[in-house]
Specification:
Blueprint: E1 5-7, H1 9-38, H2 47-72, E2 73-75, E3 91-96, E4 102-108, E5 119-121, H3 125-130, E6 138-141, E7 149-157
Length: about 160
């Protein structure tokens, strides 16, 4: 049973674009590799052919995985978001109570995680800790080493 996939509308669009790319351009590229490999002669001893067929199998598995993700996706409705409570799709500003360091990140489903864009999963320790909380709440986040970090939610933005 696949687990629920939570996506923002932007994440759904990106997933569909990636699927379309795999189904068109990548399939064509792999088919061309198979065609070229066949031209090398006897396919029973042709490593290029075997490699191309393996690549085709992996590509088809990846396409099936993307199709299943899209089928199982629950898309967050931006109109349902509020800046009163943290939810998937919220941009959260927090301040570490100990260091005074401020951070900002967007809570997204696990399929959209992108640390470089400050998009963290609702299943991550910080994501789980802040979900459902309000502005000025202090949440405790367990870290791998040392005492739990205390984060104060300073602002909640809506808008993906």
């Amino acid at each position: 049973m696949p687990r629920d996939v939570i996506l923002t509308p932007e994440g759904l669009v990106k997933l569909k674009e990636e699927l379309a790319h795999l189904q068109t351009d990548r399939r064509r590229e792999v088919a061309e590799r198979i065609k070229e490999a066949r031209e090398f002669g006897d396919i029973s001893e042709n490593s290029e052919y075997d490699d191309a067929k393996n690549e085709q199998a992996m590509l088809e598995a990846k396409i099936a995985q993307f199709e299943e993700r899209i089928r199982a996706a629950t898309v967050v409705n931006p109109e349902d978001l509020t800046n009163d409570v943290v939810g998937v799709g919220s941009t959260v500003h927090v301040k570490d109570e100990k260091t005074g360091k401020s951070q900002k990140f967007t809570i997204v489903g696990s399929a959209e995680v992108s640390p470089g864009e400050n998009k963290i999963s609702n299943e991550s320790p910080v994501g789980r800790a802040v979900l459902g909380h309000k502005r000025n709440d202090v949440v405790s986040v367990q870290v791998p080493k040392g005492p739990a970090r205390k984060l104060k939610i300073t602002k909640i933005d809506v808008g993906l």
